[in-house]
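# nightly structure sweep
# worker-07 picked up a monomer target from the shared queue
# config: single-sequence mode, recycle default, output format = structure tokens
# input follows
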Amino acid sequence: MLLVQLADLGDLMLAGPAITHLRHTHPEDRFTLLTKPSNEALASHLADDLLLADKNLFDDPFSILRPRALTVLARLGWKLRRARYEEVIIFHHLVTRWGRLKFAALALATGAPVRRGLDNGHGWFLTDAVTDRGFGARHEAGYFGALSKGTEPVPLHVDREAARRLLHDKEVRGAFVLMHPGSGTYSTARRWPLEFFGEVADQLWHERRLRTVVVGGAGEEALAAKLVAGRDGWTSSVAGMTELPALAGLLSESILFVGNDGGVAQLAFLLCRPSVVIYGPTSPATWGPQS
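# output follows
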């Protein structure tokens, strides 16, 4: 069975419970997950085999004409056809015309007799579909759970020891708040203004004597450094220093998470951590914690 989730880490976390359920209910099957290289740490816990592809190479019709993109596409198509999958499940909405064309080509390239996905009226290439009533009509995890006919907890490694080493190196002792002012690679429009995060960190220190530890993925180090600048007494940055297990450990050690809608927020929800998450233009009805 081929599972397709080529979005960022937060989306893969939302699909994780559905994928876990599939593996538990189909123990005789072998699962391959097609996802982004940046999702490898979580993806390795969800599937037997991984196919890693840089989705950014195919984000628009013109990018696909570049030599590198054509080479990657040819290799991917050959692997998909050669594997002879019995079923392919696409954990994506068919929103744009180009996106629909890409997922149709991918699904048909596998030659799989069963092709499952969300259908908003454009899923002509699907043989087994769940009705897509649009974003907000249902939580994203609910859509994915419908594709797998159930959900189960994700087997996630939480490395508290690595987290404690980072906290020791940064001289963080006692209770602290974890903060993520970034939003991953997909959309900077989801970011709350950095100065507002700074005001929250200041209030936490001056009113509660709570230190703030700032996290962020690759490319968000400068953003975190800007937030910490001038606040060395009560904020520390570990941006770019945490693999997924250590980040999960930091969340588990913290008393509160504060951040934008994104992968770190989804991890906080997955771990059932107390959280304050900023939404806009995204909706908590789609991407927030499930009630």
